Amino acid sequence: MRDLRVLGLVAVMACASSARPVVTPAPRQQASADTAGYDVVIRNGRVLDGEGNPWIRADVGIRNGRFAKIGRITERGRTEIDASGKYVSPGWIDMMDQSGEVLLRNGLAINKLEEGVTTAIAGEGGTPVPAGRVASYFQQLERQGISINFGSYFSETQARVAVLGMSARKPTAPELEHMRAIMDTAMRGGAMGMTTALIYPPSSYTTTDELVEVAKAAAAYGGTYASHIRDEGKGLVGAVQEAIAIGERAGLPVEIFHLKAAYQPGWGVLMDSVRQTVDAARARGVDVAADMYVYTAGGTGLEATIPAWAHEGGTDSLKARLANPEIRARLKREITTGSPGWWNIIQASGGWDGIVLVNARNPENAKYEQKTITEIAREMGKDPADAAWDLVAQGHGRVMAIYHMMSESDIETALRFPWTSIGSDAGAVAQLGAPDESGLPHPRSFGNFPRVIARYVKQQHVLTLPEAIRKMTGWPATRMRLAHRGTIQVGNWADVTIFDYDSLEDRATYEHPMEFPTGIEWVLVNGVITIDHGRHTGAKAGQVLWGPGAAQPTGSLTYSVGRFRSPVSW
């Protein structure tokens, strides 16, 4: 593993078991303040503008955090980067990040930046604070400093739990109004829109009508509805149709999180049906698109293998039901018969053979990690369902698993859709050598973005390089209405990823999921060098991306590293 060059790292990084040693950055070519025309000049690179155009040979001048000139630059920069033979791209945008909580404790986001990501949009599960504290949460990130640009949705589930707890019942009219008010508060606090994760209780207990009504509060401010949809397997098309209907009825754009066809009998068929469904909706004026990660295995809690009704009341209620032999027998039957409101992720994985335990959350069960549930059941002398659910019951926290349920051909098909972007479904790590906040060790945390190019441009020729860059830069910035981001244009914020095409490789695997990629040479965030020759500098130049309902700042904006307000705008 390469050594890590970091200035001012927090203590938790220094004590990480696999952290790379702190060393002083090598000197770059400097010019004096009197003679320098720019803060940074990137010279002789192959510049990809982020709009899908072929590269051009150009210098890029950066001043006060923004692109100041693209072309032939004769003036010197205070810092000069020789990008000869390298590609100069806008910084890559993670459309489905999970860093909302960890950035409060460690704003460096090292694994994100080391794979070229400069901007992350989080919030599948909402914000790590309630609606009334959303604005202060973002302000705290600004005060502490973050190394990436960051924005977040607020979850409808947060509003629901605040009113109904873990109950499965429908809200009354006054309760629904209370939920709308909570969403309104979150939007005024700076959330980008409303999210749902409809395979997980209590989100799975919601009706379409409830979601439409709460989404109207987000729509009033120009927010987006983003969803981990209700079914990613056999019922995929219907789940996409529901998401579209929510956006159409509530009057807001729709983002489908981590698009996949997780159902082996539907491989090669379902994904094209999704294309037809989305294209038809877009043709009639519905603003709908999707993001995706580029792996054939997903990852989530092992409790997802348990029908949804058993989760009502929360974790303690679930464990009590699992301890009841009669209820266990019913749950096992429902693996075969199905259960209302539950996506059968066991079926989607082709059975228990396709599910691998990766974090047991119990030292006594750690010996089973990296084994399939079938193998674990054999060692335990139990039925696979019993083995899985015993692991859930014995976990001190959320027991995590990898689910092998997608096909390479469907990934390639979805990548070709012009409206797909890239999202990791992974967060920044708090310390090197440990998984992200979810507790899920998955290679998408370290390799998702380089893999788009390394595998699907270089090896498989699914995308051209300019199109791959568009999907990771210009398109997601446009999609999220990010003001002055996503493309290399004069006046835009200078988020930049400079990479060596030939050496760019994702090295993270399912067996070794926390390996850094190669080939990412420099990353700049708002004009500040944050990755230098593949190593984090410790800079915290990231901005909070305030949502469309946030109160806008007054007065002129003064340049100050890590202290921007960069509002989302239409």
Summarize it:
The protein has 3 domains: 11-91 and 478-536, Urease, subunit C, domain 1, CATH 2.30.40.10; 96-299 and 406-437, TIM Barrel (Alpha-Beta Barrel); 301-403, no CATH class. With 570 residues, it is of the alpha/beta class.
Strands, count: 23
Amount of helix: 25-40%
Structural class of the helix and strand makeup? alpha/beta
Q: CATH architecture of the largest domain, please?
A: Alpha-Beta Barrel
Q: List the domain count as a whole number.
A: 3
Give the CA-based shape.
globular
Residue ranges: pLDDT <50 for 5 or more in a row?
A: 1-27, 553-570
Tell me the CATH topology of the largest domain: TIM Barrel
User: End-to-end span in angstroms?
Assistant: 43 Å
Draw up the topology in text.
Layout: H1 11-14, E1 29-30, E2 36-47, E3 56-63, E4 66-71, E5 76-82, E6 87-90, E7 92-97, H2 102-105, H3 110-114, E8 117-122, H4 134-144, E9 149-152, E10 154-155, H5 156-164, H6 173-189, E11 193-197, H7 208-219, E12 224-228, H8 236-250, E13 254-256, H9 270-283, E14 288-292, E15 297-301, H10 315-322, H11 325-337, H12 345-348, E16 355-359, E17 371-372, H13 373-380, H14 384-394, E18 400-404, H15 408-415, E19 420-422, H16 444-459, H17 465-472, H18 474-479, E20 496-499, E21 520-525, E22 528-532, E23 535-536
Parallel strand pairs: 2-5, 2-6, 7-8, 8-9, 10-11, 11-12, 12-13, 13-14, 14-19
Antiparallel strand pairs: 1-5, 2-3, 3-4, 6-20, 15-18, 16-17, 16-18, 20-21, 21-22, 22-23
Helix pairs in contact: 5-6, 6-7, 7-8, 8-9, 13-14, 16-17
